[in-house]
Each structure stands twice: as structure tokens, then as C-alpha cells.
Amino acid sequence: MLIEVGSPCSLPLGLVRTKEDKIALLGLTLQHPPADVFAEASAQLSVTGPIAHEGYERAQRFLFHHRLEPRANVEIELAIPALMGLGSEAMLGLSAARALAWVYGLPTDDTLALARAIDLEPRHALEIWGFQQGGLLLVDPQQPDRPFRHHPIAHPDNHAWAFVLLLPRIPPGTPETLEADRLTALLNAAPHLSPETSRLLDEELWPALEQDDLAAFARALLGLQQLNRQALAEAGTPLTFTQEEQGVLDLLRDKGALAWGRSPTGLALYAIVKGATASIELRHHLSQHVGIYGGAVMATITANGGARHTLREIRPVG
């Protein structure tokens, strides 16, 4: 018997100053690219597959936290690409932790406990709650006990809020700490964040969610992005784009995206459109623009249920 754990990815959208004058992280949980992990009891600990070194480190932390003998085999079938700003390390770590919890007969549904066992920090609140329940999340990066706000986003294909992603090739010399460094810079800019973000959240973005108004949501999101850029500039860490990134963002805008940007914590570029047809058209334009060596182009929608796990007699083939 083995367990399969499938997890969504997490796209940060920026910081918000709430009406209570607290700093919050806003982000979306997306179905793709996912993490997929298998685990079963074994004579010793082994972790194989993409970014296995990260999975092995988190598995060791889990075993040390619970004082367990290293007797499990973990196979990473799919990993969220690293350095994209999509929560790769945290989602893989949580997936491995849930899988190991099952192997050792421990509770699998307490995500906060899983996060503590693998030493995730409060700043990983978006990934923690994305793993737990998904959707659009507003979370506290200092105290992740529960989200400030949560809203699912689900529609039929022809009305779907679709997210077109470019996961570019990683430029030579990119530091392995890119995601952590960019998250730190974003959080350090919090003292410079305008209270206008609170008004945008309460009077424009969240009402647009509740009224299913994607155009209004996109306008509010672009406004929040601008205020985040201002805060980063005032903190001395201005947001910059390469010529290639700016070219992609310009294309996304010109080809009908309602909102567009780069993950605040990584290299992934994204756009939001409405409906499957618009998604297909934008992916076509983007693929032509970047070419076969420019990175992976994909489309996805919001994941509204968090991670999923399935028990199997044997590992499926293919």
C-alpha cells in the first residue's frame, strides 16, 4: 500500500495593508504546475525524483521532529519548478510531510502541524493555506494560524478566470536563494506600503470577486501591483525587468490580458484572461513570441480544494 499526494502551486500577488493596519500577503492557489509525491514504508529513507535534495531535507526534518526511524521511500513524480515564485519548496515539503505522516500512522490533515514539522516559517502562510484549502487567500506572513480572508474562484470553461503562465529558462548565474531573497525584499518594503492598498482590497478587489467581475478584479490587481512597486522603490529595492521580461509583459497586455505581471518572489510571468478561448489564443501568441527555447507556456485555473491524497495498492504506470 502506498499514498499519492498531489498539491497545487501558489502564486503571490503582493502585499496589502489591511484596515486594521496589518500587513498581509495576497495570493492565488493554482492547479498547475503541480507537485505529485508517492510514499510507502521501506527499510530505509530514500527520496528520488525532481529536486530530490529538497525533498530529502524536508523528510529528514519531519523524521527528526517526530523522532522516527528513517524507514520510508518517497518518490517525487512531479515538482513545481524552482525559482519561479510558485511555492516549489514549501509545497513539495508539505506533500512529503503528508505522505510521511500516512506512512508512520500520524494525522495527515493538520497542515499547520505538518508545516511545523518541516520547519516552514510563518512567511510561507500562502503555501500553507494553499495546501490546506486553496483559492484566493489573504494571509498574515507573521502568524499563519488562519487566513484573514479566503475566496474560491470557479466557473465553467467559457467563463473561467484563466491564468496563462510563462516559466522561463533560468538565466545563468541566478542565485538559488532568489525566491527567499525576493520575498524578504517584499516583506521589508511593508513599512512603505500605502494605506490605499486597503481601500483597493475592500472597495474594489474583494467586491469584484463576490460579484464575479473579472475586469474590475484585474483593474484592482494592477493598482495593487503599482503600490507594491512604489513600496519596493522607497525601500531601496526597486522592481526591475529584463528586456525579455518586459517584452513578454508588453505582449500579454497587447494581446488582451486583463492583468499581467511577474511573481513577486520568482521568475514566472503571468496574465489573466476570461474563458478557455482567450486562454488558447494568448498561449499561442506567447509561445510564438518566446519560441521553443524560451520556457514553458501553460494555462491553468484556481485550485479551490488544496492538496489531495489517494491510497493505492500499487503505483500507477505512466
Describe this structure in words.
It is a single chain. The protein has 318 residues and is of the alpha+beta class. The chain has a single domain (2-312), classed as Ribosomal Protein S5, domain 2 (2-Layer Sandwich). Helices cover 38% and strands 25% of the residues. It is built from nine helices and eleven strands. Helix 1 (52-66) packs across helix 2 (88-103). The radius of gyration is 19 Å and the shape is globular. 46% of the residues are buried.
In short:
With 318 residues, this protein is α+β, with helices and mostly antiparallel strands. The chain has helices at residues 52-66, 88-103, 111-117, 125-132, 178-188, 196-210, 214-234, 243-254, 276-290; strands at 2-17, 23-41, 46-48, 72-78, 136-139, 149-151, 161-168, 259-262, 269-274, 295-300, 308-312.
Lay out the secondary structure.
Elements: E1 2-17, E2 23-41, E3 46-48, H1 52-66, E4 72-78, H2 88-103, H3 111-117, H4 125-132, E5 136-139, E6 149-151, E7 161-168, H5 178-188, H6 196-210, H7 214-234, H8 243-254, E8 259-262, E9 269-274, H9 276-290, E10 295-300, E11 308-312
Helix pairs in contact: 1-2, 2-3, 6-7
Whole-number tally of structural domains: 1
Structural class: alpha+beta
**What integer value in Å does the Rg equal?**
19 Å
Mean pLDDT: 96
- How many strands, which pairing sense, and closed or not: the largest β-sheet? 7 strands, mixed
Structure summary, number of beta strands: 11
CATH class descriptor name? Alpha Beta
Query: Kindly, what is the distance between the CA atoms of the first and last residues, rounded to a whole number of angstroms?
Result: 18 Å
Question: According to CATH, what is the topology?
Answer: Ribosomal Protein S5, domain 2
